[in-house]
Specification:
By secondary structure, this protein is an alpha/beta fold. The chain has five helices and eight strands. 30% of the residues lie in helices and 30% in strands. Strand 7 and strand 8 form a beta hairpin.
Length: 162
């Protein structure tokens, strides 16, 4: 079958899991629950990622296969210590899911989905965030604090303003 890679676009309302072949074509996909660790906790984030992994392969009528790499583009994963907790929990709870796991903030993932040498994105989903990533990977961000601290422009904040 060749090498397979996984990617998660995880947000405050729901998440998507894609399995890609080595040539970049989509092999399988699934959808799942919120994977923002501030809203559901790291233990549920990894549980929901594992469920989507299983569901993606189930959609192809096959048992899950260990991925060569898994990129987790998740809302609420900015700090390095949070990224380490996600990796450690994933490796402890589900060691067979992937050989390598790389968590990043959801806006970082969106930048590199759209641009190959850095760029800027604005996310206005359940929450809001703006991220600039330079070609040297230096990052600048605004927002993304969550509804408790102020997430103007996000779906959680807008109804309270009307």
């Amino acid at each position: 079958m060749g090498k397979l890679y996984g990617g998660v676009d995880g947000g405050g309302s729901g998440s998507r899991f894609s399995v890609l072949k080595e040539d970049g074509t989509v092999f399988a996909e699934s959808e799942g629950k919120c994977t923002n660790q501030y809203l559901v906790g790291i233990e549920n984030v990894v549980k929901y990622v594992e469920e989507m992994w299983r569901d993606a392969f189930k959609s192809k009528n096959m048992d899950p296969v260990q991925l060569d790499g898994l990129g987790l583009s998740l809302s609420g994963v900015e700090a390095e210590h949070i990224k380490e907790k996600v990796i450690n929990r994933m490796k402890t709870d589900f060691p067979d899911i992937a050989k390598e796991i790389v968590p990043v903030n959801d806006s970082f993932g969106a930048v590199f989905t759209s641009f190959d040498k850095g760029g800027i994105v604005i996310i206005a989903g359940t929450g809001s965030n703006c991220q600039l990533v330079l070609p040297n990977l230096k990052q600048f961000a605004c927002g993304g604090w969550g509804h408790m601290l102020g997430d103007e422009g996000g779906a959680t904040q807008l109804p309270t303003d009307w």
